[in-house]
Amino acid sequence: MQVKRRPLVSLGILLLVVVSAYLFYNNFIVTKPSEEGVYKGNLLLDEIIPSVDGVGSILFSSFRNKVLVIDFMAPWCEPCKFQIPILKEVESIDGVEVVSINIDPKYDMGYLNEFKAEEEIEWFFGHSPSTALKFEINAIPTILVVDRNGIIVYRDYFTTINDFERILTDLIT
């Protein structure tokens, strides 16, 4: 009788190990993209961003099926100004959309519209200090890269063109 139980016990232990490994992998290793949020691995928190020209607004979810680069910035920030020429290069890549968002509440739309013209920003430029709070922006420029499914794949500060090329290569092919 003892001989017949041994295979069952071994099978039970093997099954327990497999189930435990799956649960560990599923709960601690795999990113859950269905969880909406503001950090790498999250489904991008959906926000409405008003344009600085007062003409309209955007909704982040309207960029699904495109790679989205979000630039949180302010006109007084020198690194933010250095980020603009890099974003111009990124914006010229097929399948990539860029959105810049002023986070400083001290600027009015007239000034921001002039800033947009002076810096020759041709992509969407919005104003939303409240979005900066929701996205827990603590330094600028903060750059987010969002894949075609709306998942944040990158979140960091000033980002070089080499960094963008490395990040975007897999996303746009």
Describe the 3D structure:
This protein has a 5-stranded mixed β-sheet. The chain contains 5 helices and 9 strands; from the N terminus they run αβββββαβαβαββα. By secondary structure, it is α/β, with parallel strands linked by helices.
Keywords:
173 residues, alpha/beta, Glutaredoxin, 2 domains, two-stranded parallel ribbon, 5 helices, 40% helix, 22% strand
Ordered list of secondary-structure elements with their pairings:
Elements: H1 2-29, E1 36-37, E2 43-44, E3 48-50, E4 57-59, E5 67-73, H2 78-91, E6 96-102, H3 109-118, E7 124-127, H4 129-134, E8 142-146, E9 152-156, H5 161-172
In short:
By secondary structure, this protein is α/β, with parallel strands linked by helices.
CATH architecture of the largest domain: 3-Layer(aba) Sandwich
Estimated radius of gyration: 22 Å
Largest sheet: 5 strands, mixed
- Separation, N- and C-terminal Cα atoms: 61 Å
Q: Mean pLDDT, nearest integer?
A: 90
Q: What structural class do helix, strand and pairing data support?
A: alpha/beta
Number of domains: 2
- Unreliable stretches (pLDDT < 50, length at least 5) are none
Succession of helices and strands = HEEEEEHEHEHEEH
Under CATH, the homologous superfamily of the largest domain reads: Glutaredoxin
* Shape field: elongated
Main CATH class of the largest domain: Alpha Beta
Proportion in β-strands: 15-25%
Strand order, largest beta sheet? 7-6-5-8-9
**Number of beta-strand segments:** 9
Number of helices: 5
The name CATH uses for the topology of the largest domain is Glutaredoxin
Range of helix content: 40-55%
